[in-house]
């Protein structure tokens, strides 16, 4: 692909050309950057320690191409719905390498997962164990289960993405009258293979201390399970949540910053208490894919409000990135066709959706914007496409994978026809 000076390149591709070829809005993922994150996990975790696993939390970005890529990179997978699981199976992901999370899995979802031979079930509630036992008995199958606990850890992140506090819809409370009878039930049930304990305390975390505190809670449970039931926990799942860089205010820590202290604490605890050291699983989503993705938009109308601000509107918005509207998330943007640091001016980038909260970035410093410019938003690879909606009947954008100058469409742009294909006019209105 040809390169033009002052154009933003992404994994060797000219983004302005990509916008021309595939249209905007457009999600563009650097395959090399996804591989880099996977390889860091390989080097600093999977190959460094024995008995560890990484399950990519596919909710961050779950499409066939991505699942193929992470499988090729040697990772396992975490899914949270029948739809995510279906996509994984369609991508030929090995079922044994799939873990099924979620706080309200339906009977149909559990049945499908058992039929496929999903590797782990993360039980999230008191009822779910009874439910899965019942289904297993009917199907004459067994399930490998972990219990997701609520470790009562408060994390430093947006409150909408913190999940480890006591008052949470996720997980089983750390109440021994609740938790231990459940564990006993799982150990005793012939159709259940009790594997261990799972937690996920929250997302976009910059500090390693909260994972450590939660791991300590889980390790103490391992010890108590050994003491009470003489049962060796086989596996601990420490969840995901490793933070990425959205703006200059964020620090992207290497995986080792989180994982070395976690492994050290785990190994030390098990040695001190003469416990079998369980397999350690982590479930990163965002940190594998967020920074590899950018979104391209075309700037349309520009409105100057003298003494107040300038608004530049893009041809998408909260339908392709709901994070600013939902979590006040901050982003960095650039003009893809004007790569310069000179003569920057503040401009507020607004979406085209009929909502006042549809503002992508307030007062971004950019070269003077003009209608037709291509805006690039960085770090949109996680929870962008996967949270996209058809509000205002806006079509879901296309997705492109790029690598070393080569580009390929991995999701086609949704058509208007596809948007209405499931709609039916009732007979009396025809
Ligand atoms: N494991 C479990 C059980 C989870 O609930 C999550 C995320 C992950 C792993 C992956 O977490 P990560 O490594 O991506 O932080 N839509 C929000 C994020 C919600 C995350 C929900 N659970 C956002 O855009 O910030």
UniProtKB/TrEMBL annotation:
Q: Subunit info? A: Homodimer.
- The record places domain Orn/DAP/Arg decarboxylase 2 N-terminal at 40-290
**Active site feature:** 354 (proton donor)
Residues that, per the record, bind pyridoxal 5'-phosphate: 241, 283-286, 383
Which InterPro entries does the entry mention?
A: Ala_racemase/Decarboxylase_C, DAP_deCOOHase_LysA, De-COase2_N, De-COase2_pyr-phos_BS, Orn/DAP/Arg_de-COase, PLP-binding_barrel
Record EC number: 4.1.1.20
Any one Gene Ontology MF annotation carried by this entry is:
pyridoxal phosphate binding
Kindly list the cofactors needed. pyridoxal 5'-phosphate
Which class of enzymes does this protein belong to? lyase
Name assigned to this protein:
Diaminopimelate decarboxylase
Keywords carried by this UniProt record: Amino-acid biosynthesis, Decarboxylase, Lyase, Lysine biosynthesis, Pyridoxal phosphate
Quickly give the catalysed reaction.
Answer: meso-2,6-diaminopimelate + H(+) = L-lysine + CO2
The record lists the membrane-crossing segments as: none
The coding gene here is lysA
Q: Which Gene3D superfamilies match?
A: Alanine racemase, Lyase, Ornithine Decarboxylase, Chain A, domain 1
| Gene Ontology terms describing biological process | lysine biosynthetic process via diaminopimelate
PANTHER family xref list = DIAMINOPIMELATE DECARBOXYLASE, GROUP IV DECARBOXYLASE
Q: In which pathway does it act?
A: Amino-acid biosynthesis; L-lysine biosynthesis via DAP pathway; L-lysine from DL-2,6-diaminopimelate: step 1/1
Q: Does the keyword Lyase apply?
A: yes
One Pfam family, short name = Orn_Arg_deC_N
Summarize where substrate binds, as residue positions: 286, 323, 327, 355, 383
Among HAMAP family, the record links this protein to: LysA (MF_02120)
Question: According to its UniProt entry, what is the function of this protein?
Answer: Specifically catalyzes the decarboxylation of meso-diaminopimelate (meso-DAP) to L-lysine.
Family, per the entry?
Belongs to the Orn/Lys/Arg decarboxylase class-II family. LysA subfamily.
